[in-house]
Amino acid sequence: MSDMVPGQHPTIESIGIVGGGLMGSGIAEVAARSGLQTVIREPNDDFLQSARRRIERSMGSAVRRGKLSEEEQAAALGRVSFVTGFEDLADCDVVVEAVPEKLELKREIFAALDRVCRPETVLASNTSSIPIAELAGATSRPERVLGLHFFSPVPVMSLLELVRALRTSDETVALGRGLGEQLGKEVIQTKDRAGFIVNMLLVPYLVAAIRMFEAGFATREDIDAGMRLGCAHPMGPLQLADFIGLDVTYEVCNSLFEEFKDPAYAPPPLLKRMLAAGMLGRKSNLGFYPYN
Fold this sequence. Notes:
- With 292 residues, the protein is an alpha/beta fold.
- It has helices spanning 22-33, 45-64, 70-78, 103-116, 132-136, 170-182, 198-214, 220-231, 237-244, 246-260, 269-276; strands at residues 14-18, 37-41, 80-83, 94-97, 122-125, 145-150, 159-164, 186-191.
- It has an eight-stranded mixed beta sheet, sandwiched between helices.
- Helix 4 (103-116) links the parallel strand 4 (94-97) and strand 5 (122-125).
């Protein structure tokens, strides 16, 4: 990590990412394309190979669309390392956790990172709904913990939510904002409460649409067309829920309902039944709509 010049954000040189799924691989791609040494950690080689394929496919698509040259692609891929041990993340300036929305899983990861990373390393979570203070409590460095909530697909979406917990230091906030700017993101800052800015506003909207469909009030196509054509949204709420992932939508609903006990955040019964049937949205090729 380079020294911070007065009035500027510190420059990050290396980043670790725990979890190489859709979000983690997207964060890794953006980081590598931005010139950062990037380390992806997964528990086994099969998961690592899947992460590698996601990154290669995404960069290949960028090359075909003229967004990236073949030379830039090769250089970016050369900056990415794939590891299975937490200790391989020890020298990273920042480590971002990007695993499923399970509180205990995330706390276990933060505790493991706290043991192996340098005291000055910043630990961040890509959680979309879990309060950061609950994750910081698993470490001995709560002042060096913050939320960095990216949006999917990470290489395309320009927004980054920076979440400041009660004990997050000014230096850590400045570093998080600087990292977002290095990655070419528009950074918005929020206090630490479940859902942050975007999901606090988005989830009640998605839940209302799912309940409307569940009640047979209108077809899925008409619900989505109403919001696309009537409100100029790029996609309707049911299609958006499929895109986010119905499993992710369900977990975010639960996190918000647990914190606020507001029925507007409670996951609809239909959502639970769809998950039981393996209907996760686009990632499983079947959700409110079928996908190929």
